[in-house]
Amino acid sequence: MHDAASSQPLQEPGTPGAISLSEIVSLLKRHTLRLLVIGLVAGGLAYAACQVVTPRYTGIATILVENIDPYLPTEGTAQPQGKAIDSSFMNNQVELLATWTLHEKIADRLDLYSDPEFNTSLVPPEERPLLTQAMDWLDIKVDLLKEALLPPEPELPQLEGVDPARLGTIDAVGGALVANVRGGSHVIAIEATSEAPAKAALLANTTAELFLESQVELKNQRLNESEGWVGERIGELRADMEAAEAAVGEQLRQMEFFDGDTKSILNEQLSRISSEILTVREERIREEAKLRRLRSLLQSGGAIENTEETMTSPVIQNLRAQETGLLSQRAELSSRYGQRHPTMMAAESSLRSVRQKIQTEISRIAENQIDKVRVVRDREAQLLAERGGLQDQISAQSEELPALRVLERDAETKRLVYEQFLSQALQVARVEEMQAPDARILAMSIVPRAPAFPQTKLISALAAFAAISIAFLTVLVRESADKGVRSSEHTERLFGLPTLAMIPRVTGKRFRERPEDAITELPRSAASESVRSLFTSLQLIEVDEHQPRTMLITSSVPFEGKTMVSISLARQTALAGYKTVLVNMDLRRDNSRYRKPPERRNVSSHNALIQQGPLLDECLEIEEDTGLVKLVFPSSLRNPAELLNSEQIDGLIQDLSRRYDRVIIDSPPVLVVPDARFLARIADTTIYVVRWAHTPKDKVVEGLRILRMSHARIGGIVLSQFDPRLHSKYSYRDSGMYHGSAGGYYVQ
Known about the structure:
Blueprint: H1 21-30, H2 32-52, E1 57-65, H3 87-97, H4 100-110, H5 130-149, H6 164-176, E2 177-181, E3 187-194, H7 197-254, H8 261-300, H9 308-311, H10 314-334, H11 342-398, H12 402-433, E4 439-443, H13 456-481, H14 488-495, E5 499-504, H15 518-521, H16 526-539, E6 550-555, H17 562-575, E7 580-584, H18 606-609, H19 614-617, E8 620-622, E9 629-632, H20 640-644, H21 647-659, E10 662-666, H22 675-682, E11 685-691, H23 697-709, E12 714-722, H24 724-727
Parallel strand pairs: 5-12, 6-10, 6-11, 7-9, 7-10, 11-12
Antiparallel strand pairs: 1-3, 1-4, 2-3, 8-9
Helix pairs in contact: 2-13, 4-6, 4-7, 7-8, 7-12, 8-11, 8-12, 10-11, 16-17
């Protein structure tokens, strides 16, 4: 049993609108079947959608960036410098893979202009996928709408010689390729997507090969620019050196130093040999550069199409044409046959044979180049020896002439500068021999076995999960937005008060106007049992170590079942053997449910009503079937608040408490009129009625606050008019109490 302390909150009230973890679990249990059905439907629809979508396969080729060429000498740089591999350089390589020029080369190499997958102009509109047709139709409608609503746009000039189908194919190639750097490594992954597995692998591998070739082409372009500047500078320095040497000769002639024709001849020979040495040296540098480049390309297998030797070799050009034809043939065959098919193996064998012949021809060209270099070197050495002998002869005759020495030093200085730039030209030649790609193919793409899109299982699972999540969140939001109270757990958590009883709604036409009649007419019904449960709960309440004799029944707003609870509780108390009086203090409403006495009774004055004795007895009415005594005031009262706030009403309630074992007062709602505040002060306990799933939580909180300010002793809450069938689905502790397995105990 609990005493007057029970009139205070058992705990601090919770926040209205909040939802606990247990309620979330309960919510999940209630809607498990519905959520599963939604998930299965969504997953099934996603699976069906995946079946009508054309699968796309992805081939992946990887490139490792490792060889970084040095910077070539240019104007303003004294020495070549090296480049470091950093994130910026790797991003630049990725950007090169996304260039329109590379995509064009891919389309040319694989002849994708004749492939309907990449050249959509080859596919009739009626044979295109449904999604594509829908997008085309939408584009047409949008264009028509623009023409109707917006002013006409100026026509753009058409570029001559531009094939829209070709441009579309190249754009499609770019759309099928994705390149990215793997983590912080120097590896670039090239992903190519196609409707055919073999085509996806071929596209990825071809992209990797052409990327390496484009790197060499770019290097050659920069090399040509560097060679041009260095060559121009060498020409200027050579002219300066020749002018200085000519000044030396002119000085010798002016001083008449030479003895006759012999000395003049020596000077002329020296000038001629020096000039010839320069010519031979330049030729030697060029020939050595050609030799190194041929050797490098032969060893690395790099592109040789742009070298002078191959461009002038009819044998190489013929073999390269055969290679191009075989590559196209291989690409066409790979879309139909596997790698081990005899036809594919024969094509690969032919391709290897042609490439071997190309390498053999390059080796022959390199051997011829070796002979050229040997001849030029021998000629240079011979000329250097002759010049040295002449210089010795002339020096021996001119040591006594300081002026001549000055000119000779100037000539020597310019010769050193000239030779320094010749060294830079040699550096360019060395860079030329390094014209290999900055990267190498780490792994070629294999033919994918499974499509990359759509991933049917994953998409179906994600669709099911997303649908379940959205459905559950929707239900959760609705539950959170629910302003009503649905269980005893709610009342205890939100208001800190016990739930004394949960009274189900009474069904049936005969009880529509007077649901409290079901207590007596249907004693085994769920409603009757819930009222008996309320009666039992009140028996366990103690006020000042005694059971409460005066009980106030109230609510927040009208139509919450307050009167039904009052009459039903009073009848049950009377049936239990207690001398009970029910006082209708809801004086502003029609009291027909109390079977008001005839108006002919002389009780119009409320002063007479609250007097003890015969006048009061005239207002009492006794139910024959229950023995309940009802005190019903007439509807002629004009100022109920004045009556309730008078000392006489206190005396009336005290008099009734002495006459009867239990006094049950039906009070007006707390939030509508102040009557309940006055009555709560004189009642031993107050029972607060809340309509199930209907009364807003904030109104209940406000009503309880007002009662506590009036020093009311609140015994607990009664949830009225709840739906047993709906309530049983909520998995609360009190769910199923009047439905389901327990439903057999009750008769409706």
